[in-house]
Specification:
Layout (H helix, E strand, L loop, with lengths): L17 E2 L5 E7 L4 H16 L4 E7 L9 H12 L4 H10 L6 H10 L6 H8 L3 H13 L7 E4 L2 E2 L6 H15 L7
Parallel strand pairs: 2-3
Antiparallel strand pairs: 1-3, 2-4, 4-5
Helix pairs in contact: 2-3, 2-4, 3-4, 4-5
Length: 186
């Protein structure tokens, strides 16, 4: 009997967070690396993570709009590939920084800038190794009501409105108050 390659579990985006894992507020964004609005939202998220350290943890889920952003699918796959090396966030930021230059071969260069030196990455992108993982994010997003990007959820509740720092901060503060048990004097 021929012995096949041992299957290594994929680290999926739903399992990749930045921030304190015990934070009372979970902020989830569905986005696309080629989107200008998602790029702007990424700056807001960075500021929120800095301002609400210990209160917020963040998860980015892929929702590429491939009809208008043809390279967003491969960019999302590159981020998942980077997650396999523990470099999701480095790649995530590199993709947004280079959002107008996301061809398959340039993704390998962005990966190198993010600290990923795996030779297999380009092959993974060419073969669509993580394509199904991106499609799972899209399917889940559609299931919970994502129709546009960026779409945010705060502790599972869909955020409506423009994702500005002030608007998201207000909702995060409210969610954090709900999440923490109130201390009553005895």
């Amino acid at each position: 009997m021929a012995q096949g390659k041992e299957e290594i579990p994929v680290i999926e985006t739903k399992d990749v967070f930045v921030g304190d894992k015990k934070a009372p507020v979970t902020l989830v964004e569905f986005g696309d690396y080629e989107s200008e609005d998602c790029f702007k939202a990424n700056d807001v998220v960075k500021k929120i993570l800095e301002e609400f350290k210990g209160i917020v943890r963040f998860n980015f889920r892929h929702f590429p709009l491939t009809k208008i952003h043809q390279r967003s699918q491969k960019a999302a796959e590159a981020a998942i590939s980077a997650a396999q090396d523990g470099k999701f966030w480095e790649m995530h930021n590199a993709l947004f920084a280079n959002r107008r230059n996301l061809g398959t071969t340039t993704l390998k260069l962005h990966a190198k800038d993010a600290g990923i030196n795996r030779k297999e990455m380009l092959e993974e992108l060419m073969n669509g190794t993580y394509g199904q993982n991106v499609h799972e994010d899209i399917a889940y997003g559609k299931k919970i009501g994502v129709t546009e990007i960026p779409t945010f959820f705060i502790n599972g509740t869909k955020f409506t409105g423009k994702p500005t720092f002030d608007a998201l901060s207000k909702e995060i503060i409210a969610a954090s108050k709900k999440a923490k048990p109130s201390k009553k004097a005895k």
